Amino acid sequence: MTVVGATAVCLLAMLAVAQAILYVRDKEGAEAVAEAAVARSEAISLARRVAAEQASRIGQPPCSATDIDSLKEIAFRSSYMSDIGRIRDGRLVCSALWGRSRPYTLPAPSFSSGSIRLWHASDLLGSPYTGSNLIAQGDTFTVSSPSAFESLDPARSSSISIETKDRSFAFRTLSPSSRVGAPSLVQAQHCSGVADVCAFVTSPRHVVSELPSALLTTILAAGASVGLLLAFLLIKHRITARQTIQQRLVLALKRSEIELAYQPLRRIGTRELVGFEALSRWRPPGDDEIPPAVFVPIAHRLGLSPDLFRYVLARAMNDLAPALREHRNLYVSINAEPVDMAQECIVRYISSIADDFGVLPEQIRIEITEREELVSATAKSNMQALSVLGYRFLIDDFGTGSANFSHLAQSPFRGIKIDRMFVAAINEDSPLRPVLPGMYRIARELGLDVIAEGVETEEQDLQLYRIAPEAIGQGWHYGRPLSTKDALAAIQVG
Question: Is 22 in a helix, a strand, or coil?
Answer without folding.
Answer: helix
